[in-house]
């Protein structure tokens, strides 16, 4: 018998939260709250013996109702053939935001994913990332192989796992903390460092009064010798790094990922039983950076600065195979002509000696970078071999000589800042109190 039940007009209606439709309007230069679910059934190797389950993803059963704030850059909706790099941000307090990073990310036209539920002492942090990642790659145009992550403190530890869970990550910036760990044993703490994908560039930023500052050394020493890493120490505490430090970290990330010789990614199965798979940097990622460099060249008043940008455009075009694109081919011909003209400019010629000396300093730094992981180190402790101490001494001496010889050069500020930052590794630093 068919029974029809008529509900009174005043009866409450139970509303069940649903993921945001893929048709949700996304406006240029604006942020939209997106709801998403984690729908895959994956075997993820996580902490098997935690002291408690407060942030152990294995203890979480939540799979629906996650959120992220999605920033869409200026020009996105009109440039329908353009794909963009994506920055995932995690905060120890949840509800991540761009904060001090906003100026750089907005100006350079990044897609930004700010995780909402991911936070310290909450075991849904991993599912929040996976839900957001799997949603955003369907929702917006993310360039292949151009995913990045950053976070503060516990958020930094979260972002260190991103390249171990999904393919296509090219770099991370760990702020005020090192990597996550599976358990508190020595092997559990340094395990992710040892298994971390070598093609992913790793930057670390720490304040001089940060209670995690020794992990600056940990990043440098426990990542494999072939890994690409960069660390800067700034005046400050346990905090998001200043805008100028983030700018330098991004400059290094860009050079390492887009300009240096491309590094072939490898699959990783350390955290994800089925493995991450491989997603190489695609042509559209290089096209995005090529176009960014074009805007920078047009905006700079420095002849030498423009000269360096044009040289970089040539390298990026070669790395990304852009010469075959008709519009880029015409642009490259114009770039070649501009480079030839700029070589004769007095400002460019005056920097030739400084550039040679700067490259010599960079070679000294590369030797330190190569030797740091070869010594005997303990987790979370600053420890240098006698050989590395000698290399640092030579590096600092070369920096001092450079500043005397080229005090007003294009490279002077960069040399001074790096020397001051790296001095943390050789000079005694009072143990900071926990903030």
Class per helix and strand makeup: alpha/beta
Proportion in helices: 25-40%
Low-confidence stretches: 1-14, 429-435
Number of H- or I-type helical stretches: 13
**CA radius of gyration:** 24 Å
Number of domains: 3
CATH-defined topology of the largest domain: Rossmann fold
User: How many beta strands in the DSSP annotation?
Assistant: 8
By CATH, the superfamily of the largest domain comes out as Alpha/Beta hydrolase fold, catalytic domain
Write a structural description:
This protein has 435 residues and is an alpha/beta fold. It has three domains: 30-259, Alpha/Beta hydrolase fold, catalytic domain (Rossmann fold); 283-348; 351-425, no CATH class. The protein is built from 13 helices and eight strands. The longest helix is centred in the C-terminal third of the chain and has 20 residues, at 352-371. The radius of gyration is 24 Å and the shape is globular. The termini are far apart.
Structure summary:
This protein is about 40% helix and about 15% strand.
Helix and strand topology:
Layout: E1 30-36, E2 66-72, E3 84-90, H1 102-107, E4 111-115, H2 125-139, E5 142-152, H3 154-159, E6 169-175, H4 186-195, E7 201-207, H5 215-222, E8 229-234, H6 243-259, H7 283-299, H8 303-320, H9 326-342, H10 346-350, H11 352-371, H12 386-405, H13 412-422
Parallel strand pairs: 3-4, 3-5, 5-6, 6-7, 7-8
Antiparallel strand pairs: 1-2, 2-4
Helix pairs in contact: 7-8, 8-9, 11-12, 12-13
């Amino acid at each position: 018998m068919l029974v029809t039940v008529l509900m009174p007009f005043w009866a409450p209606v139970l509303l069940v939260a649903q993921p945001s439709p893929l048709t949700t309007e996304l406006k240029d230069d604006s942020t939209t709250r997106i709801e998403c679910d984690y729908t895959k059934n994956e075997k993820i190797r996580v902490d098997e013996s935690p002291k408690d389950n407060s942030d152990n993803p294995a203890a979480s059963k939540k799979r629906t109702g996650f959120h992220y704030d999605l920033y869409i850059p200026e020009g996105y909706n009109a440039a329908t053939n353009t794909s963009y790099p994506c920055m995932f941000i995690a905060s120890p307090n949840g509800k991540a935001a761009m904060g001090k990073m906003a100026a750089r990310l907005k100006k350079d036209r990044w897609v930004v994913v700010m995780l909402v539920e991911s936070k310290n002492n909450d075991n849904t942090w991993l599912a929040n990332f996976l839900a957001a990642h799997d949603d955003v790659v369907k929702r917006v145009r993310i360039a292949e192989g151009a995913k990045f992550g950053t976070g503060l403190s516990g958020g930094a530890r979260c972002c260190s796992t991103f390249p171990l869970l999904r393919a296509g990550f090219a770099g991370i910036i760990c702020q005020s903390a090192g990597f996550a760990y599976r358990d508190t044993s020595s092997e559990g703490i340094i395990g992710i460092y040892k298994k971390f994908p070598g093609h992913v560039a790793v930057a670390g930023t720490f304040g001089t009064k940060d209670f995690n500052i020794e992990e600056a050394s940990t990043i440098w020493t426990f990542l494999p010798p072939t890994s690409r890493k960069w660390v800067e120490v700034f005046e400050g505490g346990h905090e998001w790094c200043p805008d100028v430090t983030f700018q330098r970290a991004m400059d290094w990330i860009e050079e390492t990922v887009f300009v240096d010789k491309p590094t072939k990614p490898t699959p990783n199965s350390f955290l994800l039983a089925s493995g991450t798979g491989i997603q190489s940097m695609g042509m559209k990622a290089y096209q995005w950076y090529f176009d960014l460099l074009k805007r920078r060249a047009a905006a700079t008043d420095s002849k030498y600065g423009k000269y360096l940008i044009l040289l970089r455009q040539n390298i990026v075009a070669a790395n990304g195979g852009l010469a075959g694109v008709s519009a880029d081919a015409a642009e490259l011909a114009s770039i070649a002509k501009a480079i030839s003209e700029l070589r004769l400019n007095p400002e460019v010629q005056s920097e030739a000696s400084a550039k040679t000396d700067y490259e010599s300093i960079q070679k000294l730094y590369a030797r330190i970078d190569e030797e740091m992981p070869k010594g005997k180190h303990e987790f979370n402790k600053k420890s240098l071999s006698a050989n590395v101490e000698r290399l640092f001494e030579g590096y600092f001496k070369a920096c001092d000589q450079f500043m005397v010889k080229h005090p007003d050069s294009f490279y002077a500020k960069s040399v001074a800042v790096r020397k001051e930052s790296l001095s943390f590794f050789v000079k005694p630093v009072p143990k900071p109190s926990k903030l």
